[in-house]
Every structure is written in C-alpha cells, then in structure tokens.
Amino acid sequence: MGVWPYPRWIAHRGAGKLAPENTLAAFRLGASHGYRAFECDVKISRDGVPFLLHDATLDRTTSAVGPAADRDWAELSLLDAGGWHSPAYAGEPMPSLAAVACFVRSNGYALNIEIKPTPGDELATGRAVGHACLRLWHDEPLPPLFSSFRPEALAGARETAPALPRALLVDEPWPGWFEMAQSLGCVAVVSNHKLMDEALRATLRSAGLHALCYTVNEAADVERLRALAIDGVITDAVDHFAAD
Ligand code: G3P
Ligand code: MG
Questions:
Q1: pLDDT above 90 for 63
Q2: Less crowded by CB within 10 Å, the N or C end of the chain?
Q3: Which of 6, 21, 39 to mutate to test the pocket of ligand 1 (most atoms within 8 A of CB)?
Q4: Are 74 and 45 in contact (CB under 8 A)?
C-alpha cells in the first residue's frame, strides 16, 4: 500500500454548513480555516457539463426548482446558489467542475470529487467527469480522487480516466461491496464513520485499501478514528477541527 498523498482533513462540500455548500465561496471559507483538501458533489447538466450540486433537484439550494438534469449549463450557471443559505451569499453561482479545478490547482489544494449522478445518469456522469478531469488536471502530483456510492459511476470514470484514483463510498454495507471496490480497482473506501472499526480498518488494510470516513463532526468520533489511523476525515466542522 503506497503512501497516501492527500491531506487527512477534508472540508465537506467546501466548508460544510458555514457557507453555501458546493460553491467557490465555501471553498474559500474552508481554505481560510486552513483546509487544503475539499470534497464536493458533481453531476452533469443536460448538455453534459460537470458542475457542483448535491441534490438531484434544484429546490433546496438554488433559486430554481425541478431536476437539474433537465437544464443546460448556460441556464444552470445563472442561478443563485447562495441566497438560500444567507443574504451575504446571495447571487453566488453553482460552479462548474472546471472553475473548481482552476481554484484548487492554482492554490495547490486537493480535491475529492464525489460523483453524484442524477439517478439514471450514472455511467454517463462517470464518463463525463473522468473525461473532464483528464483535461483539467494533467500530470500533476495531486490528482483528484473520485468517489461515489454508485459503482456504475466509478466504472464510467475508469473508462475515460483509468489512471485517476477511485474510492467506493459506503453508507450501509451491501452484499458484494468489498469485492466491488476491488474489482473497480479502488485505492480507498470512504465509509460512513459509524461503520469504521478495527475489523473494517484491518480488512481494508489487508486488501491494500486506504480508509476515509464521512461526515465526522464530533470530537469523540475524531478521537476514535485517530486511534484507527484513518487516512482521511471529511468534516463540516472546519471551524472546530484544525486541519493537520
Ligand atoms: O463524500 C462523502 C459525503 O459527502 C457523502 O455524503 O450526502 O454528503 O454527499 P453526502
Ligand atoms: Mg458528498
């Protein structure tokens, strides 16, 4: 198992809940708290552009409603993705993956791209994200780390960007998840922190898989994971936990 190149602390959706999730404003706020690695959720527009959004619909975090996958990027890029959070962020747009790549590469930050397909778009989303990343990151020491709950999305990313690292996300263990992580050539598993214990840590280690956990917001959980020497901790609490 090689040396894990990514920072241990990863800011969830940019800066957790302190700024509107999955916006560049959130990334900048996370960075202002000393974070050098970021997780974000990426899906594709109707015309195939990868951009940041957690939900399948626009309702919760933008000024529009309905499925995001029904709109082209030209339209999505004009929406307000900050006003729902607080007036200070009104007008903040959803960034394209290209804009986020520009930000993290310019600052030497690491990026964990959670491929979060609109249901039914798994393979196409993985392919599009992989393809975009080949163009956005080239021969750099810290490539983006793909992760997804959806194996088909990771398979799509492997098709178009086989050399970029992949991780399977696991919220609840399901039959065959471990074999799936191995068959997808994953370098890591990102689990719900509640699943992580000595046995799982040992299983992953013996298979040469690194171990990351989400979403870790309590000090007691941080201590428990620290004792297990977890490779990556994804947190909302960028104002509570100093990134080391
Ligand atoms: O990638 C880890 C974590 O973000 C997965 O859950 O729902 O916050 O995207 P969610
Ligand atoms: Mg996520």
A1: yes
A2: C
A3: 39
A4: no
